[in-house]
Design brief:
- This protein is an alpha/beta fold.
- It has 32 helices and 34 strands.
- The strands form ten sheets. It has a six-stranded mixed barrel.
Length: 773
């Protein structure tokens, strides 16, 4: 059987292809950031807003989770951060009149870029069963509609509550409390689709699912691996940290199927020298096969073992392996080393797509390093064998004691600006019992212990008719999720879908029988409640928590904050007519929490370790850093109290004849599912997005030509999925590998193809064939 993706009004006839760039940022990035900012916000508003981004008394950029130094530049933002801010602070508006002029059917024909360009949502809107258009609805009616649907569920598990990583700590905490008060742990979030594999592997091996390094560590490391990551587009401010590391003598090894301009040459716009001269960042580029990273790290472990056997040494040690660290702080090393001895070099070479000489040279880099960091993103987390891959990353670091010492450690680079904070706050379908115990004590109720649905399980449950109510707080669920048509059909099975959003997107058009759009404040906007102007907090990729306070006048007087939306709904669900708590519900003063976010922070302080004196500590410039036992004291919250070496079977993708393995990726004019424009300047793609990047060798061997239009067909367990009309672009990719943008290619990602242990969709390893259009 074949399923067919909907076609959108993307004019690919204007698409042009030029030579990819070999350097990033510089004057073109500054010019493009200002151009988009002025178009969306106007000149004066742009200056006022951009000067507040990531400042100590300003708001946290929603563009990514990269941290900031306490001492900051006046312009503490990047090109894509400026685009994200401009999208939110735009003067464009989507009013009830807009919805009156456009039916849902009409809006479904529009592409993601067009929808996002319409501007900010201004009123709560309602789509009734059988209706063709959204119509305005009062907030009180909307809350009663949601409460009525939730009260009518046969089981609390018939409701699903999704969360995007842009949600603040305060909103996330009251959200999870609402959900657990209803009686379910169905709390899927965007982590399930990106870094869940990181958390799974790190919890198993070092006892905490977070990175262990600081900015200072990164800037003082001896050796830095950047694997499966494109910071020039996805985390541009990371380039400044890599530049500092490079100037301090670090060696940088980039590991990726595609060469990325941002890791080749960085022109720092913050200083004259950076703009005029720039910095060559990458010392070694390893163009690995998609999914071949596990083989590389097993090869590096094997190389270290062989060097140890040969009697070699590393800086500061008489040996290669850090035996004192291994003995005092780890278990399982003997089983791991026996596994390495059995793995053949020929298998490592085949699986990685690298040469033996490249792997040995990288092993020499490790031998010369006294402090090594491995950074990674989706290129490592979205494969079936992602968790074993990351366990093997940890193995290599443990061999040389590169956990819990300056300039060394694990560095998963998160995307959304508070995706890590949401997890800390309890946005997770299987929080540990200690969290539930403290939550129950603080709010005098019994929270549910049975694990809930993650994202893939939630889609399956909706598909199978087991879910009646879906709420999404932020994000664009239907475009972020895999298997697009299945996801759309799954949402259509529900009775009510609720989207808490700042801007229009396709999740508002793939609805249950009835649907609500609830417009909310953005990070840039002033959040005024009964007790005064509020601030919220976020946690970055390096476990630092700091305050964020918007300055702009809200886009509409009808916007409610995320905290207010959650608290108003909880008050309606959990209190009687006199405002008294109903039996078996959280004992919380929901209206007080809505009116004063410092009261939310008092509850967070009581429930979650590391938030002592929360209110006082966020008043300090830059906030504070949460505890991380492996980093702070080489202490590991594992069953043995030590870090765990693991022996993992070598896995890699076997590509059938005539097929390619596709990885989905972002363009430079994109942040997750938000499309800022139709260009990918660094990769040389202009005026379109429906392209597939393929090596010239594969184009020739498969009988196609550069520039030819093709359909992409994915193959999984006898089911084919179709994405139409993509232009082949000859590109530097490993043989057998291809790349194309999401969300256009999410339709090709099978719902049931997920990473072992973590359940993350395998968006970086989709087997496809190309057919002439």
């Amino acid at each position: 059987m074949a399923s067919k993706a909907p076609r959108h009004n993307i004019d690919e006839s204007k698409l042009t292809v030029t030579k990819p760039k070999t350097k990033a940022v510089g004057i073109p990035a500054v010019a493009n950031a200002l151009k988009i900012s002025f178009e969306q916000m106007g000149a004066v508003r742009s200056v006022q807003t951009l000067m507040a981004v990531n400042q100590l008394d300003g708001f946290d950029c929603m563009g990514c989770a990269w941290p900031e130094h306490e001492k900051r530049n006046a312009a503490e933002f990047c090109e894509n951060g400026a685009k994200a801010v401009a999208e939110e602070a735009t003067r464009r508006r989507v009013t009830p009149e807009f919805f009156a002029a456009h039916s849902v059917a009409d809006l479904k024909t529009r592409d993601d870029y067009w929808l996002g360009q319409q501007g900010r949502l201004t009123h709560p809107m309602f789509l009734d069963e059988g209706a063709t258009h959204y119509v305005p609805i009062d907030w009180d009616e909307a809350y009663e509609l949601m409460a009525g649907e939730l009260r009518g569920l046969a089981s609390p598990d018939e409701a699903v509550f999704y969360t995007s990583g842009r949600t603040s700590n305060e909103a996330a905490f009251v959200y999870q409390l609402l959900v657990r008060g209803i009686g379910t742990n169905n709390l899927p979030d965007c982590s399930n689709m990106c870094h869940e594999s990181s958390g799974s592997a790190l919890v198993q091996t070092i006892g905490i699912g977070k990175g262990s390094v600081s900015l200072t560590d990164l800037e003082t490391a001896s050796l830095i691996f950047v694997a499966g990551q494109n910071p020039g587009t996805n985390h541009p401010r990371m380039l400044s940290a890599l530049e500092k590391a490079k100037k301090n003598g670090a060696i940088i090894v980039s590991i990726n199927p595609l060469p990325e301009a941002g890791l080749l040459h960085f022109e720092n716009p913050q200083n004259v020298s950076g703009m005029l001269v720039g910095t060559e960042l990458t010392d070694d580029f390893l163009q690995i096969r998609a999914g071949g990273d596990q083989a590389l790290f097993q090869g590096l472990g094997k190389y270290l073992l062989e060097a140890e056997t040969a009697g070699r040494s590393t800086p500061g040690l008489d040996t290669v392996l850090d035996h004192a660290f291994i003995t005092n702080h780890t278990v399982g090393v003997d089983d791991y080393l026996r596994h390495l001895e059995k793995v053949g070099w020929e298998d490592i070479v085949e699986a990685s797509g690298l040469t033996l000489e490249q792997i040995h040279a990288t092993g020499e880099r490790l031998l010369a390093s006294n402090a090594t960091i491995v950074c990674w993103a989706m290129g490592l987390t979205q494969h079936k064998h992602s968790v074993p891959t990351l366990r093997d990353v940890v193995n290599v670091l443990l061999l040389q004691g590169n956990i819990g010492k300056p300039g060394a450690g694990v560095c998963p680079v998160r995307g959304h600006s508070n995706v890590q904070g949401d997890r800390t706050m309890g946005i997770f379908e299987k929080m540990p019992s200690t969290f539930h115990d403290r939550l129950d004590h603080e709010f005098e109720f019994l929270s549910p212990r049975e694990h809930g649905y993650d994202t893939v399980a939630a889609i399956r449950a909706m598909r199978d008719g087991k879910v009646r109510f879906f709420m999404g707080m932020g994000g664009n669920f239907v475009r972020a999720a895999p298997d697009s048509l299945v996801t759309e059909d799954a949402l259509a099975n529900t009775a009510l879908t609720v989207q808490i959003s700042t801007k229009l997107n396709h999740s508002h058009l793939s609805t249950g029988r009835r649907a609500l759009i609830l417009p909310t404040l953005g990070r840039t906007e002033k959040d005024a409640q009964a007790s005064g102007d509020q601030r919220v907090t976020v946690e970055d990729s390096m476990s630092a928590v700091h305050a964020s306070r918007g300055r702009l006048k809200p886009a509409s007087e009808h916007l409610h904050s995320e905290v207010a939306i959650v608290c108003n709904l909880a008050h309606k669900l959990f209190t009687d007519a006199e405002g008294r708590p109903l039996p078996n519900t959280p004992r919380a003063s929901w209206i007080s929490l809505r009116d004063d976010y410092s009261l939310v922070r008092k509850h967070i302080q009581a429930v979650i370790d590391g938030f002592e004196d929360f209110e006082e500590r966020i008043a300090h410039p830059g906030g504070f850093v949460l505890p991380h036992p492996p980093r702070d004291a080489r202490a590991f919250d594992t069953p043995t109290g030590k870090a765990l070496f693991t022996g993992n079977e070598l896995e890699y993708i076997k590509i059938p004849p005539g097929r390619l393995v596709l990885q989905t990726l972002r363009s430079h004019d994109q942040y997750n599912t938000t499309i800022y424009g139709k260009d990918d300047r660094y990769r040389g793609i202009h005026g379109g997005r429906r392209v597939v990047l393929v090596s010239q060798a594969d184009i020739d061997e498969l009988g196609f030509t550069d520039g030819q239009m093709v359909h992409l067909v994915s193959e999984f367990q006898g089911v084919e999925r179709l994405a139409e009309n993509f232009r082949i672009v000859a590109y530097s990719t490993p043989k057998g590998c291809a790349a194309a943008y999401y969300p256009e290619t999410n339709v090709l990602v099978p719902l049931d193809s997920v990473a072992d242990t973590s359940g993350t969709p395998t968006s970086k390893s989709v087997i496809i064939r190309m057919e002439a259009a």
